[in-house]
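Recall that a protein's primary structure is simply its ordered list of amino acids. Everything else, from secondary elements to tertiary packing, is in principle encoded there. The following example makes that idea concrete.
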Amino acid sequence: MDHLTKKDRPAKKRHPKGLTILHEDKDIVVIVKPAGLLTIGTNHDKTRTVHYLLNDYVRKGNPKSRNRVYVVHRLDQDTSGILIFAKSEQAKQFLQEHWQETDKHYLAIVHGHLTLKEGTISTYLTENSAKKVYSNQDTAKGKLSHTAYKVLQETKRFSLVDIHLLTGRKHQIRVHFAEKGHPVTGDKKYGNGEFVSKRLTLHARSISFTHPFNGRKMTFDTGIPEEFVRLLAKK
C-alpha cells in the first residue's frame, strides 16, 4: 500500500473564514453570510466583511493578484443568509440589471401572532437623520415598499414567517413588522426591548436568478437556521 507523505497530499482548498460557499464558478460565487458580519466595509471596519474575506479567497492570499469579487446586493450586518457576488464587472452589471426578476425569500421569527396569516405590507419608507427608517404618509418623501408574507408556524409567543421581498429598501422587513406590532425577535433597533434571542432572527433563506452567462435558472435554499429551530422550540 502506498503511503502519501505530507508533501504528496493534495493541497486543501482555501475556504473563506466563517463563510459557507453554496456555489462557485468562473462568473459568480454564492455564499451564506453569518449574522453579525458586514457585507462591505465602512469607515470604521474595512476588513471584517464578506467582501474582504471573499477578495482574499479568490486571490488565494496573494495581495498582488488581480482577482476580485464585485458586490451585487447587500444584507444588513445582523441579518444572515444568501449573498451573490460577481467575479467580473459584466456579471455584476447583468445581475443588477435583472434584479427585479430575482426571487428572494426571507425567514423571520416575530413576536406574537399576526391577525392576517398571509398578506402584503405596503408603505412609503423614509430614513431620518438618526439613520432610523419609518413609514411616511408623504409619498414625495418616502420610497414605496412592498413586503409579502405568509405565516408558516406559530408557537405560544412567536410566529415563523416566510417573507417574499418585492422591493429591497433599507431595514424594510424589520420596520414593516415592527410597525405592525410584531417586531423581529432580537432586533435592537426596532424591537420591543424584549431580547429573547441573542441575534436578529432574520435570514435570507432562498434566491432564484438567471446566471449571467449561461442563462440557466439557478435556485439556492438554505432551509431554516438552527438558531431559529431552537428558539421556536422554547416554551
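The chain has two domains: 11-97, 101-235. Residues 1-11 have pLDDT under 50 and may be disordered.
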